[in-house]
Amino acid sequence: MITYTVAQVESLTGISAHSLRVWERRYNFIKPHRTETNIRYYSDEQLKKLINVGILLKHNYKISKVAAMDDNKIHDLISSILLGQQENYQDDIKSLTVSMIDLDEAGFNKLFNTHINKNGLVNTFIQLIYPFLQHVGVLWGINKTMPAQEHFITNLIRQKLISATENLPLANSNAPSLLLYLFEGEDHEIGLLLANYIAKEMGWKTYYLGSNVPHENIEIISKQTSPDLLFTMFVSPRKSKFAQAIDDFLMNINTKMLYSGNGDVIKKSQHQDKTHFLQSPESFRQFLSEYKK
Hints:
- The protein contains 14 helices and 8 strands.
- It has helices at about 5-15, 15-25, 45-60, 65, 70-85, 90-100, 105-120, 120-140, 145-165, 190-200, 215-225, 240-250, 265, 280-290, and strands at about 5, 35, 40-45, 175-180, 205-210, 230-235, 255-260, 275.
- A 5-stranded parallel sheet has the order 5-4-6-7-8, covered by helices on one side. A 3-stranded antiparallel sheet has the order 1-3-2.
- Helix 10 links the parallel strand 4 and strand 5 (about 205-210).
């Protein structure tokens, strides 16, 4: 059983530790487990329930009423709130967290598709998916999701992006081209997949290499395809020798490299004139648009 401390539950639900203790004493509601040394902790099931309780409290339900509800009643109310509300990304982020913990593909699809229909794919990622991934980073950072849960949710997100990209038309033969890749040691592919979708949607021809690509392979493909631009992202922490490898890579290419994420490794390069930092998906879209002009 995966367990969560009071501080972790407080961070993930927005419910204060003081409130948790009062509810436990006053309503006999969600009693935490205790270690042999009397330290309080919560289970997966308790965390999921408290996430939903936090949403209900934000929508003016009283804890005295919620404490008397069974799990089915709470679930029905949450479903009604999420379907009927205007944009409330914090509630939806917490619901996606529950879907991840539960390995609930249907729940994920229902919420994701609702946002797609309202806002489109790119805005859904900017407004919902990226903040969600940052939120569950609290879990990943304290090693509280099993690898299976992390892979489950990220692969669902990857599938959505790949499917949407496949439905886009092919670029014209005279369209500008973009080579997209992640260097060795970079596994976080969702941002790169989103960049590929944006570029294709704008009519660019893309060469998508994916994650963990050796430097020398990128150089070979770059010479073979002669793209107008390169694009990559830096997420993982890096040792100093990686900065030297990037510097050597930049020395050997003649094409401007766009990049996003952690730019510290680029700051140490002697070839920064060959690079351009992009803050967000919107700045990426704007750069491609201006380049085409």
